[in-house]
Amino acid sequence: MSEKYTEINSKVIDKWVEEGWEWGQPVSHEMFEKAKNNDWYVLLTPTKPVPKDWFCEIKNAEILGLACGGGQQMPIFAALGAKCTVLDYSEKQLLKEKEVAQRENYEIRIVKEDMSNPLPFEDESFDLIFHPVSNCYIEDVYSVWKECYRVLRKGGILLAGLDNGINYAFDDEQKMLVRKLPFNPLKDEQLYRESIKNNWGIQFSHTIEEQIGGQLRAGFVLTDIYQDTNGEGRLHEFNVPSFFATRAIKK
Question: Are the C-beta atoms of residues 245 and 48 closer than 8 Å to each other?
Fold first, then answer.
C-alpha cells in the first residue's frame, strides 16, 4: 500500500473514462443549447434529476463542481450563466470539461486536486457546491464537509449525491450478501488485493452518521433529501434505494 489510495483512484477513473464510463460522457452541443433556453436537468445520483428549486439563482452564481469532472453538469451551469470552477483528481475527467468549454466557447476554472486534502480556495468563495456521488472514493468524508462549509458563503448551498453502502455488501449479480459493512480496503488486506485485481479502485462505504451527521457537525442545516436506485441491475429492479441526495445550507 505504498501508493496513496487516491492516486490509485485517479488512475483507475482515467482508465474507466477511456473505456467509455457513463459518468465520463460529456453533454452534447444540443443539450448545451437547450440549457441556454432554460431546458435542462442535472444529476447528483444515477436517475433522478435534481429539483430545480434546490438551486440558488444560477446566473452569475459562483459554482464549485466538487469531484464533478466529466463535462456533464458544469457545462449546463455555464450555459445558464454561472461562473464555474470544477475540481477533480482525474486528468481524463478534467479533459472532458476542457473539451466542452472549448467547443461551446465558455470559461471554466479547472483544478486538479485530491478532495481528501484541504480545498485550494479562499473562505467564502462560492454560492453553491455541486457534489455528485464521489466521496465513496475517499476514506474520511467529514474533512470534505468541513471544507465545503468553509468555502461556501453564508446562505450558500451544498448539493450532494451520496452512496448508502448497500452495493458493497452484494455480489456482482446483486443476488447474495457477500460482504460485511463497512467496506474499507485500507483496513482489510484481502479486500484491498481484490479491489486492485478487479480494477475497482479503492472505494469505501459510508454511514448515515458520516454522510448526513457529518454535514450537520460541520455546521450545515439540512433542508431536503431524496433517495434513488442504481438505475440498472437486480437491486434497481426491486426498487431498492442505494443512493440519496441532500440539500444543505450554510447559515
Answer: yes
**pLDDT tens per residue across span 30-56:** 999 999 999 999 999 999 999 999 999
d(CA 142, CA 211): 8
- For residue 128, what is its C-alpha cell? 453553491
Report the C-alpha gap between 138 and 5 in whole angstroms. Answer: 8
Which pTM value belongs to this model? 0.97
Torsion, Cα of 145, 159, 89, 218 (10° steps): 0
How much is the CA Rg of the chain, to the nearest whole Å?
A: 18
**What's the N-to-C CA distance of the chain in angstroms?**
40
